[in-house]
Amino acid sequence: MVGKIMVSLVSLILVVGVVLGVAIALHKGSKDDAEQSTKVQMKANIEEFCKPAEFQIPCFKSLDSVAKNDSATMKDYLLASLKVTGDEIKKSLEVVEKNPIDNKTDPYNHMAVEDCKELLQYAVEELQDSYSMVGDTELHSLGDRVSELLNWLGAVYSYQSMCLDSIDKPEYKQDLENGMRSATQLTHNAINIVAKISTVLQAFNVSSTITTSSNNHRRLLGYPTWFPVADPRKPLDNQFNTITADGKEIASKPGGVVFQNCRIVPEMELFPVRFQLASYLGRPWKPYATTVFMESELGDFIRPEGWMIWQGASFEQTCHYYEFANRGPGAIINNRNKSFRNFRLLNPIEAAKYTVDRFINGNDWLRYTGAPYYLGLGGR
Ligand SMILES: *[C@@H]1O[C@H](CO)[C@@H](O)[C@H](O)[C@H]1NC(C)=O
Ligand SMILES: *[C@@H]1O[C@H](CO)[C@@H](O)[C@H](O)[C@H]1NC(C)=O
Ligand SMILES: *[C@@H]1O[C@H](CO)[C@@H](O)[C@H](O)[C@H]1NC(C)=O
Ligand SMILES: *[C@@H]1O[C@H](CO)[C@@H](O)[C@H](O)[C@H]1NC(C)=O
Fold it and tell me: Which pTM value belongs to this model?
């Protein structure tokens, strides 16, 4: 039995491509210690821990001190990486504060910088929360909190990129980008690392052993901060309209934009002029833009090619645009633009991943908001 489990564990680890030093002791016996039945001790070393990271050298440098400790666990590594990331974001906040822009000569960028400070402050707070959460969580129950953690880290990343995107003065933007590089790279790394930790923990069924006990003290976190990010910019040119422009930059960062049971139709007063500008369901603002329209009515003003490319980039090759069970003249997909490599109609099993229940864990928090909702497919 133990041998069999070990074999399947080994193959699972190979499948996810992450090799962690693992010592597992199974205590079989008394029925009352179901929760204790699997004790998992995961030691990590720096090569293994940094393997999923996009920016290897910053990952190694930032974990220098914890790497010196031979008995450091995966949790120690994770805490250290969150701590360093937070420190770097504080440094980028200092860079922003050191470069004020005169409100008289450049009110637009003055305002952008003020917003930027606020965003970075949020990022610092969110990272501090993440740090405390990981600190308070036993490693064996971390698997249960990973999606929360990914949401927070995703928000930390978004705050930094919103800050940079809001500034339009090129030389200032460049300075800021340089000043923030270390912070954004470390945040990017943290997201990829946590996403892999989740895979490993799930492979070990670590999360499922504790789900019942940890649910009791699950904190209500409120709205995930990335929720939902429909086109935040006024239209940049007036050749066309897009309903969405998702800005997901990291494949393993959670989030995206989902429309379910919506009516995508023109306002009454715009109805006569609805064909004057071409209208599209979305345009990929960043490489992993993720957008789903499902169980919705799409009006005749949506162009048959459906989706618009982002000029000057090739994000149509990497973005994730899907449709499922839409109706109305705009929902005919025969002439959707074939350049969107991943585009397709989902089947119901795939579509279920984008429902309120699965995509935003709505069952855990929406009831506290008083907002009406349904969790799955086929609601009204
Ligand atoms: C090394 O890691 C272990 C395991 O987390 C910890 O108990 C110990 O205090 C650490 N040693 C140092 C010097 O930080
Ligand atoms: C910047 O100047 C504008 C007027 O040009 C004023 O309305 C605004 O309050 C000023 N903002 C700050 C932060 O001083
Ligand atoms: C994890 O749980 C599933 C379903 O409960 C089971 O089929 C699988 O064998 C378990 N994996 C391990 C590694 O114990
Ligand atoms: C489809 O996308 C390509 C870019 O890959 C673009 O050149 C082409 O104009 C698009 N076709 C339509 C009909 O929009």
Answer: 0.69
CA gyration radius, the chain:
23
Query: Does the CB atom of residue 5 touch ligand 3 within 6 A?
Result: yes
For ligand 2, the distance from its centroid to the CA atom of residue 113, given in whole angstroms, is: 13
- Span from the CA of 309 to the centroid of ligand 4 (angstroms): 7
Residues 6+ apart with CB under 8 A from 327: 296, 297, 298
344: helix, strand or coil = strand
| Ligand 4 centroid – CA 124 distance (Å) | 41
Q: How high is the pLDDT of residue 223?
A: 33
Per DSSP bridges, beta strands 290-294 and 344-345 are unpaired
If phi > 0 it is left, if psi is from -120 to 50 it is alpha, else beta; for residue 222 that is left
Q: Which whole-number Å values give the CA distances from 220 to 26, 171, 209, 224, 289, in the listed order?
A: 33, 42, 22, 11, 27
Residues of 110-145 as b/e, b for ≥16 C-beta within 10 angstroms? Answer: eebbeebeebbebbbebbebbbebbeebebbbbbbb
Pocket flag, ligand 3, residue 205 (CB < 6 Å): yes
Tell me: pLDDT of 40 over 50.
Answer: no
Q: Which amino acid is at 334?
A: N
Is the distance from CB of 155 to CB of 126 less than 8 angstroms?
yes
Q: Which atom of ligand 1 is nearest to the CA of 76?
A: 5
- Which position has the higher pLDDT, 9 or 181? 181
Q: Which of 311, 328, 325 is nearest to 354 (CA)?
A: 325
Q: Are 345 and 333 in contact (CB under 8 A)?
A: yes
* pLDDT at position 44: 73
Q: How confident is the model at residue 144 (pLDDT cuts 50, 70, 90)?
A: confident
Give the whole-angstrom CA distance, residue 288 versus residue 311.
Answer: 15
Return the pLDDT at 239: 76
Separation of alpha carbons 70 and 45, rounded Å: 8
Task: For ligand 4, atom 11, name the residue with the nearest CA.
Answer: 337
Angle between helices 107-136 and 74-98 (to 10 degrees): 160
Kindly indicate the confidence band of residue 64, based on its pLDDT and cuts at 50, 70 and 90: very high
339 lines ligand 4 (CB under 6 A): yes
> What is the CA(74)–ligand 1 centre distance, in A?
12
pLDDT at 5 over 90: no
